[in-house]
Specification:
Blueprint: E1 8-12, H1 16-27, E2 31-35, H2 44-52, E3 56-57, E4 71-74, H3 83-90, E5 95-97, H4 98-105, E6 110-114, H5 119-132, E7 137-141, H6 147-152, E8 159-163, H7 166-169, E9 179-182, H8 196-204, E10 215-219, H9 223-226, E11 240-245, E12 255-258, E13 261-264, E14 274-278, H10 287-302, H11 310-315, E15 325-330, E16 333-337, H12 344-351, E17 358-363, H13 372-381, E18 384-388, H14 392-397, E19 404-406, H15 410-420, E20 426-429, H16 442-454
Parallel strand pairs: 1-2, 1-4, 2-3, 4-5, 6-8, 6-9, 7-8, 9-10, 10-11, 11-12, 16-20, 17-18, 17-20, 18-19
Antiparallel strand pairs: 12-13, 13-14, 15-16
Length: 459
């Protein structure tokens, strides 16, 4: 399948990824149709854009009239087990994910990054390290810019870095990254998956098509991932295994932390450890970002970069938008935007990143998430909690000692946090939930937070 002229392709979902697929496939001459179950008024702009490219929009009620399809391409936000996809599969139409199509069109090797938290930071850092070493690198996927746009024009000598979610991995068939990694696994998206095991298996698909010429990077500190280590006797991973750890036992790790040094033990050649960087070289807050730097470093080392070329790249990488991003200081209080923290594990990591009193703003659209552990850490590490959105009461119910206030808007939440904070404190937006109950996106939520902080007069 060439995804080109002579083929009749249905794109399911008209979000950013779906629109990018339409654009690329139309440019290749394919006959493209698109379908979306959202109300027509909500997607009117997207429909106009794809029709301007020569694609045709098909309302869901007219799906039966669309025949002789070559295949369908599924956007990551559309559930694979939904009724619409089931109708298409029942007609014996093969359904591919956007990242599968991107892989088949890509001439460059791919580094694929997944995990419950830290994906975007790590994928961006990998791209940054490649470029700092003089290599061409394109970064796309779940990070916000569709992978297919980055992959389709990448020359063979480039590297394509793909941040991939469990949703995107569900429908891969031949997707075969040269380097794959799983940063960590904790509870998330249980509104989409029937069990934690089902979610984990979706993540494990990232290495399903790899072979002994490829590399897999894993976190030895994650109990679930550590079970995949070759030393455990598990044989699911056929690729060369590279592991990182913060722990004292580095016997089975390729990169580890000793004191303040990030050390790399080459798997071939001179086995003596090489210092890649020191913790002071990392501009990102939190021990979890030390792990992200280790993972990113292993990825570019697996791609052939010289270990000595990494330190300057690590030093020059700054926090991404909405990921522990300092917004500013008002009356001696630091305001930090971590709006992309959409699950409890990410918020726990954020809370552990600071040794100052924290006023936490959390809440949003829940994902059938258990907030028990988050509540315990909130009680241990925060001065106060301000909750917003649909999950406000559920989060508050798991907090027993920390004062809790409820807010009905981001402006109200920031005002309440300001009244609770003292000079030297941190007001941290780290929601543990999706944003769609009150905001257009996690980015929109972060911008609203920054507007409320910077637009408010000093007390």
């Amino acid at each position: 399948m060439n995804f080109a002229g002579g083929e009749k392709i249905l794109v399911i979902g008209l979000g950013r990824s779906g629109q990018a697929v339409v654009e690329v496939l139309r440019a290749r001459g394919a006959d493209v149709y698109a379908i979306d179950e959202k109300p027509r008024a909500e997607i009117a702009e997207a429909v106009a854009q794809i029709e301007a490219l020569g694609a045709k929009f098909v309302p869901p009620e007219n799906l039966a009239g669309l025949t002789e399809l070559t295949c369908a391409v599924l956007s990551p936000g559309v559930p694979l087990n939904g009724a619409l996809v089931h109708r298409i599969q029942s007609a014996n139409v093969p359904v591919f994910s956007e990242i599968e199509v991107a892989y088949r069109l890509c001439k460059a090797p791919i580094v694929a990054v997944t995990g419950t938290k830290g994906k975007s930071t790590t994928a961006s850092l990998i791209g940054h390290l490649f470029r700092a070493a003089g290599k061409d690198a394109r970064v796309g996927g779940n990070i916000g810019n569709p992978l297919i746009r980055e992959a389709v024009d990448a020359p063979p000598e480039s590297w394509v870095v793909a941040e991939v979610s469990s949703f995107q991995l569900e429908t891969i068939r031949s997707f075969h990254p040269r380097v794959s990694m799983i940063l960590n696994i904790s509870a998330d998206h249980l509104d989409r998956y029937h069990s934690m095991d089902e979610y984990i298996e979706a993540k494990y698909r990232i290495f399903a098509n790899q072979n002994e010429h490829d590399a897999f990077i894993g976190n030895l500190d994650d109990e679930r991932l550590a079970l995949l280590h070759w030393h455990s006797g598990e044989a699911r991973i056929r690729a060369k295994q590279l592991w990182f750890t913060l722990g004292e036992d580095s016997r089975h790790a390729t990169m580890y932390l000793r004191g303040e040094s990030l050390l790399y033990s080459p798997v071939t050649g001179d086995p003596r450890p090489v210092e890649i960087a020191r913790r002071e070289d990392i501009a990102l807050a939190g021990i979890h970002n030390v792990q992200n730097v280790m993972a990113a470093s292993l990825a570019v080392l697996a791609a052939g970069l010289d270990p000595r070329a990494l330190r300057e790249g690590i030093r020059s990488f700054n926090p991404m938008d909405h990921r522990l991003q300092p917004i500013g200081e008002v009356d001696g209080v630091l305001y930090v935007d971590d709006s992309k923290a959409t699950n409890p594990g990410a918020v726990i990591a954020a809370l552990r990143s600071y040794d100052k009193p924290i006023i936490l703003i959390a809440g949003g659209k829940p994902k059938k998430t258990d907030f028990t552990e988050l509540g315990r850490i909130v009680d241990e590490r925060t001065r106060a909690l301000v909750v917003i959105g649909e999950a406000a009461d559920d989060i508050a119910a798991h907090v027993y000692r920390t004062p809790v206030e409820r807010a009905d808007s981001m402006e109200d939440a920031v005002h309440r946090a300001q009244s609770l904070a003292q000079p030297g404190d941190i007001v941290l937006l780290s929601p543990a939930c999706a944003s769609f109950d009150m905001f257009e996106s996690a980015e929109d939520r972060g911008r609203k937070f920054a507007d409320a902080v910077l637009g408010s007069p000093a007390r």
